[in-house]
């Protein structure tokens, strides 16, 4: 009798609770961290609405710091979409005893929403994002200490990754979480390279090798030395820890060499055969460093890590690095005196009267210091309204050159004023021949 009564009581209790849980959540049931045991769908719906309106998410930051994001900062809202009623309908009321064991715990999730723009603004206002004490993350890298490269250690810092931070906070809001550990969520930026990274050590070794290079430039009796004191300013590593050359700084260095040692285009002081001094501008003669080629040539030299002595790469050269750069083999042409001299190794080879470009005809021969382009024999010079065969042709300024003029019997004086050439230097045959036989390509032609 007693056993039967006991069984009846248990059965009545079981059936009663089964009926109870047909409209209420089981024991041991939570929703977004809140206990909803024994509550109806309507009660839970109302509770989620209230929780959303007052929700606060606490962010745990490095150094024991915390900050919060309140629901109204991101326009957090609970979405009453029937999900809670559906979860309750899916609950088997007769299986409620299973909720009494630890494995029977249920943690359900309601649906929340937020405003993305407001979330972005809220994150940007965090001290952990925009505060003055945020320490930027930095990679370890090779640093020049005045003598060699050593490894500057990485900086872990306290800089957050904006994309990872937003994703983690978004997920926490949608889940209704009240706390988010930013470190555990992987929201902080981390250095890509540390002091122990093999690539950092390899970059340091490479850069120290480059510092062993030294370039001694020779400019006649003058020298310029490029060593590690300058080379170190040209070296850096990129984001992949590969060593790079700063070619802008290299170009500036080579440009400074050009400014100091190039003679192309300068105004020269020239002592004439008549004993006077004249200043001569113009022309295309002189030393001229090929700056682009020299920068390109320096890179493999530095990479080799050895001292070298060399001249820079020249676009064009002159006779001497010492003053005067035209040396002692040159042609001298006096436009006012209508006379030409050819000196070789300091000795006079030819001195002859000439006829230069017609002044009245607008064909004045240009002054300047030029280099002989080439020489050729038996050439017909052609222009508008003329074709003149010459035996000796020595151009130095485009279509302007020295040549014999068999059609002339007189040279010198003032002939050039009204009856001059089209710009060339008309020369007696014998003198033109003597110059032709002794002159070489590149010989300076000095015209004043």
TrEMBL record:
GO terms for biological process: cell wall organization; peptidoglycan-protein cross-linking; regulation of cell shape. Residues 329-448 form the L,D-TPase catalytic domain. It comes from Eubacterium limosum. One of its GO terms (cellular component) is extracellular region. The chain crosses the membrane at residues 6-27. GO terms for molecular function: peptidoglycan L,D-transpeptidase activity; transferase activity. It comes from the Bacteria. Keywords: Cell shape, Cell wall biogenesis/degradation, Membrane, Peptidoglycan synthesis, Transferase, Transmembrane, Transmembrane helix. The active site is at 403 (proton donor/acceptor), 424 (nucleophile). Pathway: Cell wall biogenesis; peptidoglycan biosynthesis. This is L,D-TPase catalytic domain-containing protein.
